[in-house]
Amino acid sequence: MIHANPADDTRRAGSQKPAPGPATEPAGPSWLEPVLLAVTASSLLAGGILWLLDHGDAADLCWALGTAFAVVPATGWVVAALRRGHAGVDLIAVLALGGTLAVGEYLAGALIGLMLATGRALEAAAQRRASHDLRALLAHTPRTARRRTGTEVRPVPVSEVAAGDLLVVGAGEVVPVDGQVAGPAAVLDESVLTGESAPVERKPGQTVRSGVVNAGGAFDLRATATEQDSTYAGIVRLARQAGAEAAPVVRLADRYAAWFLPLSVAVAGLAWLLSGSAVRAVAVLVVATPCPLLLAAPVAIVSGLSRASRLGVVVRDGGALERLGRARTLLLDKTGTLTGGRPRVVDVTAAPGWKPAEVLRLAATVDQYSPHVLAHAIVDAARERGLEPSMATDVSEEAGRGAYGVVDGRRTAVGRLEPTTVVPEWARAAENRAVLDGAAVAWLTVDGVPTGAVMLRDPLRHDAPRALRRLRTAGIDRIVMLTGDRPEPAREIAAVLGLDGVRAELTPADKVAAVRAERGRAVTVMVGDGVNDAPALAAADVGVAMGARGSTASSEAADIVLTTDRVDRLADATSIAVRSRRIAVQSALGGMLLSLVAMGAAAVGLLPPAVGALLQEGIDVAVILNALRALRVDQGARPALEPAAEALIHRFAAEHEDLQDVLQAVRDAAARLSEPGGDGQALESVREVNRLLTERLLPHESAEEHELYPALEPVLGGPEATATMSRAHAEIERLAGRVAAHLSLADAQGALEPEQLEDLRACLYGLHTVLRLHFTQEEENYFSLAP
């Protein structure tokens, strides 16, 4: 089979990224391939029937007509390639077709013509199948929106929607632009962007990205961006460029052609010279049409693009996928890439006489009116723990200081402490803890008196450790963090993830310099999400943008966009890239080797032209089928979860969120045991902890042991994979039992004895540490398996 339209080589020398440009247009009209296939197949069949009926001359005429019909488009494709400066192996096909006509081997010519037609038809079918998801992405683009003005709802072109417009999104409709749910809650199918089929619920005020489908009832959407600035438009711009440039491994065909073409002609000429038979020369040319070089490689790469798109990974072109498959260095931004990009409440400290839950609820009551990112985190944390904010009046906000309001008749503030505020001892301890933990502090004051501290951090993504391990397995041997953040939190995350290096407090220019330095050593991937990452993404061999919540600038500068908010999709894409490239090279070189063997056999007269044409057809079909293996799911890349196991993971992940107040209570009770003169309050705190452990935590751990772990054992390779986590369950139960034993002794004696305090305090602090580590391990190793 012959691929007659190799893509233009727009890549600059070395490993530079391609210059942007429109997708490559097809070589000819869309009807040419089916017409060519129909004519060549009909002529071959008709000639075969006539030959069986002993009408040899008529059969030769049919075969000659089919050959002549194929010569015309083949010559046109070669001329078009020569105009672009490509003297490729397609020239061999024209020589073979002309040679069969010249020596009267009309059957061989008809077979080559059919080979040519079926090759192009197979190529078109393979690319249609491989690019189905990208075409679906383009077809999914919304054209109109329904804008609400007062009580009137009127359809308008999406291009006319402006930020601030109130839109109505009906059931089954595509969200036209980025916006926020204005009411009621929306149930959305985000599979087009994320690859995840489970519907998600977005509450009023939450962000919705364009391109997702309304899977519930109609809801109002407040537009926050125009069509061109919305998420889906940026992704579509990338999808339109998919396939614009052939991958470097595909262009190897042109380099191979530099010696393969003269070699084929030389072998054919030598066979003719030594044997005196022009038929042998034609036979050599017939089997020297190396479809594997020109067709199998691009089919494998385009198939890889399709596989990636199904996982929510939009790749700009085949070249980006091929470079990703060769990458050895990975550079990562911290905020929004390795971390979630949004702060979360990690601890709540309450003043004596106050409870952490009440502190968090009051802080959320004031902050629910604030647009600040920390305020959103506090409100979300309160609601996750079942603490609904109440009403506040006279709410105001001072930039850089915090929010103020009246709650239950008392002046309540959340934010920084006033310079004149007297800081009590418990607050100094909380401040020190925040410094050690690298956390920000939002102070709660009531009537000017500090009553609590809410500590917030941007936590590490649960899927990050597993993703980096998989990336190292895929061939990445150097991973470095580049961040503009302070060195302390950056080094802490680097230590947890086992990174090879970390550079902090970098400007965008510093990041670009670091990328260029790494590129001098190996093919380098840069991953980021913010506007400040865009220059570094553009400078890397492969720029990867976290597009789910990242900036439009970073997405536009990137070669690859992860449309789902999971960094492990990069590991999926890398595995796909490595596998696709391996299959492409394997198909091309394997098929070419078979063609060379067949050329030798034809040169010594073992393969007449007709038989050689049939053999070449078989070689072509084999390598194309091998290339299409890149469409299949690599089962070793990501463990396949049963639906029941996936449901259990989501259930226990939600319970981890609900149990954060239990962990907080354990730590607070340990701290109260150290407060002088507070034995009675400390004992009550321990009693409350014991109740929480008995009623909530231990049943959770037991359910994990007997429901979740057995469900994961087939995926993870047996019970040994969960044995260490089971041992942690045993330690948690032992420490909880020890706390209960101390309470029993205190009840028998009427109070906690001095000799009990040290051991009880150690039990509580130890239990808190074990629980935090255990929760983190489960979230990183088990919960990250589920999409």
Notable features of this structure?
787 residues, alpha+beta, 27 helices, six-stranded antiparallel sheet, seven-stranded mixed sheet, disordered N terminus
What's this entry about, in short?
It comes from Streptomyces prasinosporus. The chain has 787 residues and is α+β, with helices and mostly antiparallel strands.
Question: Can you offer a commentary on this structure?
Answer:
There is one protein chain. This protein is of the alpha+beta class. A seven-stranded mixed β-sheet has the order 10-22-21-20-11-18-19, with helices on both faces. A six-stranded antiparallel β-sheet has the order 2-1-3-9-4-7, with no helix packed on it. Strands 12-17-16-15-14-13 form a six-stranded antiparallel β-sheet, sandwiched between helices. Helix 9 (278-287) packs antiparallel against helix 21 (568-603), helix 9 (278-287) runs parallel beside helix 22 and helix 10 (291-310) runs parallel beside helix 22 (609-627). 48% of the residues are buried. Keywords: ATP-binding, Cell membrane, Membrane, Metal-binding, Nucleotide-binding, Transmembrane, Transmembrane helix.
| Terminal residue distance | 41 Å
The general outline is: elongated
Class based on secondary structure composition and strand pairing: alpha+beta
Biggest sheet character: 7 strands, mixed
